[in-house]
Amino acid sequence: MLIFANPHHAQHEGRQEMFRGRLVPCHETPSRLEHVMAELARRPVGPVQDPPPVERAVLERVHAPRYLDFLRTAWEEWVALDPANAALDALPSTWPVRGFRHDIEPSNFAARMGLYSYDAGTPLTAGTWVAAEAGAACALAAAQAVSGSRGTRSATALTRPPGHHAGFDFFGGYCFLNNAALAAQALRDAGAGRVAVLDVDYHHGNGTQSLFYGRPDVLTVSIHGDPRTEYPFFLGHADERGKGEGLGFNLNLPLPAGTGFGEWRAALQFALQQVREFAPEALVVALGVDTYEGDPISRFRLASDDYFQLGRDLASANLPTVFTLEGGYAVAAMGVNVVNVLEGFEGR
Ligand code: OKP
Ligand code: ZN
């Protein structure tokens, strides 16, 4: 298993997020990835490499050019408004909802923050663009590594910030560039006729779903906390099956808060059965470990040892596989949980 680590991830370090009515320290911290790297040093599952730089055209396979331009220049704009802003993060606070116009781009910075986002939990910082771009580079390098006949069988992209909530032209849910979608599209572009994305993060992968919703060539499957009570609320329900040519190629498996590994694994087995019937040539796993019983913002009850079984079950699909890293906020347990998945996948 090849591992691509984001050398610039720590440059994305948000100060505060809006959470349950107050500004609190960000849950999505650089220490998360440091714990994964430390556990990989203790229990190596493969060589850890830096990714090659990413090409803009590859990002444009998934994201809108004007959105990429906004992300790349947002920090400069924010500081140009007021030099004192350099000591703060930029957080959105106004959004164009039902009945507003979506076809104009205001010049006002706060308005454009709202145009390109959907929550107030995702601060944009001085290093956000550099970190997100290098994270995407990891996902793309992992996709390249498993593509073609001489490729390795599996690769992990240690992406931070995460990606599965980011859409064509919006950030949110701690995500800016959709690493899993970029990997899936890169696998398609490298010749895979069909690609499946299986999202096992606690939260529905709304960004990934929306990117592929009208397409029959990428099956998106997500197992997650029921959005009637869990973030992101407004997408991820069981009746969302795809549209047009993509009808039947999206599957949501929402489970109630409190679900333990037994029922969760039954959903996983069903998801893997659907993946098998789709007969893809490659698999992308959006790997969040916020399904862990100790997670501070999530409400499933997986134990650390359960992640070995998750890894073994994913390996049973017997496909070239790319892992991207998504959530997991019990930081001290995060390294163990992620490496348990990868060891289980590798049959150890
Ligand atoms: C990201 B990932 C809204 C904040 C709500 C967002 C949770 C994002 C989870 N003001 N919390 O899927 O692990
Ligand atoms: Zn999550």
Automatic annotation (TrEMBL):
Cofactor: Zn(2+)
Domain of life: Bacteria
The entry's keywords: Hydrolase, Metal-binding, Zinc
Alphabetical list of CDD domains matching this protein: HDAC_classII_APAH
Signal peptide, first to last residue: none
InterPro entries, per the entry: HDACs (IPR000286), His_deacetylse_dom (IPR023801), His_deacetylse_dom_sf (IPR037138), Ureohydrolase_dom_sf (IPR023696)
SUPFAM superfamilies the UniProt entry points to: Arginase/deacetylase (SSF52768)
PANTHER family linked: HISTONE DEACETYLASE 8, HISTONE DEACETYLASE HDAC1-RELATED
Homology family: Belongs to the histone deacetylase family.
Protein name (database record): Histone deacetylase family protein
Location of the Histone deacetylase domain: 28-343
Keyword Thylakoid appears in the UniProt entry: no
